[in-house]
Specification:
Blueprint lengths: L5 E5 L17 E6 L13 E6 L5 E9 L4 E8 L22 E3 L2 E2 L2 H4 L3 E7 L4 H10 L4 H6 L1 E2 L2 E2 L1 H19 L1 E7 L15 H7 L1 H14 L1
Antiparallel strand pairs: 1-3, 2-3, 4-5, 5-6, 5-7, 8-11, 9-10
Helix pairs in contact: 2-4
C-alpha cells in the first residue's frame, strides 16, 4: 500500500469543519469530496484520493458530484514517466507521449444497492423514566412480600420472581414498538456486484502502474 500510485477511500465522514492539513500524508497529493446537503443526509459518505507524488504531481480535480443516488469526483493525472515514441494515430496506453489518466472514484449508498427489509424494534421513549418512577412510587411493595409468605416464612424465590415480573411488566408498558428498515449486508462477491472484468482490472490495478513506472525509471 505504501508504494501504490493511487489510494481511494470511501465513507470518510469528512466535513467543512475538518481542515485539509489534518489529513495530508507526506509524499502524496490529497483530494477530497465531502458529503453535502444535496445527499439528503447529515453525516456519513465522502470520498478522498491520495496520489503518490513519485508517480504523478500534475493532477487536477476536474469535477465532483453529490446526490442521494451517488457521490463521485473526477481527477485528471499526467504521470511523470511518459514513453517518447513516434506519433501514432492510435497510441497504446503505455506508449503514448501525452498520456493522461482519468480517475473517477464513486460511492453508491447501500440503500440504493440493496432492498431494505422491514422489522419491528422496541424503543425507549423520552418520558419512560418519569413514567416508571411514578409507577414504582405508587406501588405497594408489601403486597408481594405478603403473597410470598409460606408457613410464616417468606419464600425468597417466589418473592423475587413476583417483584421482577412486575418490574418487567411495567417496563414493557412504557416501551414503544416501531417499524424499521434494515439493509442486509452482501454475503458473496456476486451480491457486491461481481468480480471486476479482466479488461478493466488491469487499468485500475495500482500495482501495474507502479511496476510500469519502476520499469521506465530503470530504462532511463
Amino acid at each position: 500500500m505504501r508504494n501504490c500510485a493511487v489510494l481511494c477511500l470511501m465513507e470518510t465522514w469528512l466535513n467543512d469543519n475538518m481542515p485539509e492539513p489534518a489529513f495530508q500524508i507526506d509524499g502524496r497529493l490529497f483530494f477530497r469530496a465531502d458529503r453535502n446537503q444535496q445527499s439528503g443526509k447529515a453525516r456519513g459518505g465522502g470520498l478522498c484520493v491520495y496520489v503518490n507524488k513519485g508517480w504523478c504531481t500534475n493532477c487536477t480535480l476536474v469535477n465532483s458530484h453529490c446526490s442521494e443516488a451517488i457521490e463521485h469526483m473526477t481527477i485528471k493525472c499526467r504521470p511523470h514517466c511518459l514513453a517518447h515514441t513516434e506519433p501514432s494515430p492510435t497510441p497504446t496506453w503505455a506508449s503514448s507521449d501525452h498520456i493522461s489518466i482519468m480517475l473517477v472514484p464513486a460511492y453508491r449508498p447501500l440503500l440504493r444497492r440493496h432492498t431494505p427489509t422491514q422489522r419491528t424494534i422496541t424503543v425507549w421513549p423520552s418520558d419512560a423514566v418519569p413514567a416508571l418512577q411514578d409507577c414504582f412510587q405508587r406501588t405497594d411493595w408489601q403486597i408481594f412480600r405478603e403473597a410470598a409468605v409460606r408457613e410464616e416464612e417468606v419464600d425468597l424465590e417466589d418473592y423475587t420472581s413476583a417483584v421482577l415480573g412486575y418490574i418487567n411488566k411495567c417496563t414493557e408498558d412504557v416501551h414503544q414498538h416501531q417499524d424499521s428498515n434494515r439493509i442486509s449486508e452482501p454475503e458473496t462477491l456476486a451480491e457486491c456486484g461481481g468480480p471486476v472484468p479482466a479488461e478493466s482490472q488491469g487499468c485500475c490495478d495500482s500495482g501495474l502502474v507502479t511496476d510500469w513506472h519502476s520499469e521506465r525509471l530503470g530504462d532511463s
